[in-house]
Amino acid sequence: MVGVTELGYIGIGVSDVAAWKTYATEVVGMELLDEGLEDRFFLRLDNNHHRIAVHNSGEDDILYLGWRVAGRADFQAMKEKLAAADVPFHEGSKAEADERHVLEILKLTDPAGIGAEIYYGPEVMMHRPFHPGRPLHGRFKTGSGGAGHAIVTQPDSEAAYRFYSLLGLEGSVEVKIAPPLAPIDVELTFMHCNDRQHSIAWTAPPVSPKKINHLMLEYENVLDLGASHDIVQQRQITMAMSLGVHSNDRMLSFYSLNPSGWSTELGAPIGQPHPSQTEHYRSDIFGHQVTPAFFGQS
User: Fold this and answer.
1) From CA 107, how far away is CA 89, in angstroms rounded?
2) What is the C-alpha radius of gyration for the chain, rounded to an integer number of angstroms?
3) Exposed/middle/buried for 11, CB within 10 Å: 0-12, 13-18, 19+?
4) Which residues of 256-278 are buried (b: 16+ CB within 10 A; e: fewer)?
5) What domains can be seen in the chain, in order of their start residue?
6) Pairing relation of β-strands 170-177 and 186-192?
C-alpha cells in the first residue's frame, strides 16, 4: 500500500523576518537561502533546496507540512487512494510545484486545518553543498528520516489518526502526562513513516493556542546541541523545556521559544528508539522541566 516516506519540508508564516533570519542562522545553525522574493525566504539543513519555507505572512504559526512519496507511480497511487476515501485534494499546477521546488504536488488539509502537501522529486542542490549559518561540528540529521518532526494541536484526535493513517503513517498514544507536569490530563499520539521515531505527533486535548506546539530539528553531533544550548542562554532566549531525554525517542534535547512564540526543539540522539511493540510512558528519563511557555502561556 502506498504511503509517504518522510516529512520533507515545513512551511511557516512569520511576522518578524529579520528576527527569524538571525535566530535560524546564528542560534540554530541553519543556512539562509534568500532568493530575493518579497514574501518568503528559505532555510536549509542539508543539500535539499530547503527544508523550511518562511513566509512573511504574519501568522506566526505553521502553514503546511510537505509529505514525500518515492516517485511518480506512488504519487499517482496516492491520488487514487485519496479519491477512493473521498478526501478532498487539489492537484497543483506546474507553477505551484515549482514554488515548492518539487516535480508534482497534491494539496489537501488535515482535520486541524494544517496544509498537507503530497509531493515527489524535491530539488537537491548538489552544486551548492549545505553551508551552516554558524560553525557546526557535524551536520543536521535528515536523510531518510526527513526534516525532523512537528508536534501540532488536533481538536479531534481520532480524525487526525484516520487522516495520517491514510497517508501511510503508523503509531499510537505513546505518552500520557497528568498535572502538575501539564495543565490538564494530556495524551500524545506519535506517528512515523520511516526510521525517525516520529514525524508528527499531537496532543489531545489541545494545550496550545497555535496549530503548532513545536518543531524538532536534530543534530548528528551532541556538541552542536551543547553549543546551541549555550547560545540560547547567552542571548536570554526563553526556555520552554530544560535539557533532558525523552523516554520514547531517547533524544537529548531542549526547547526554546523562536521569534514566532512557539517552541523549537533541538536534539541529538543518545539511544535507540522503536520497540517492536507499543509502549507508553508517563515521564521522561530525566530533565525536560516544563515552563508555561511550552503550553503557549505567558
Assistant:
1) 6
2) 18
3) buried
4) bbbbbebbbbbbbbeeebeeeee
5) 6-120 (3.10.180.10), 143-295 (3.10.180.10)
6) antiparallel
**Per-residue pLDDT tens over the stretch 7-21:** 999 999 999 999 999
What is the helix (H) or strand (E) element at residue 257, kind and residue range? strand 251-257
Pairing of strands 149-153, 200-204: parallel
**Cβ partners under 8 Å of residue 73, min gap 6:** none
Residue-wise pLDDT tens digits, 252-287: 999 999 999 999 999 999 877 766 788 999 999 999
As given in the structure block, the three cell numbers for residue 184 are 490538564
What is the three-state SS of 134-187? CCCCCCECCHHHCCCEEEEECCCHHHHHHHHHHCCCEEEEEEEECCCCCCCCEE
With a threshold of 0.85, does the pTM exceed it? yes
Q: Is-contact 140 267, C-beta < 8 A?
A: no
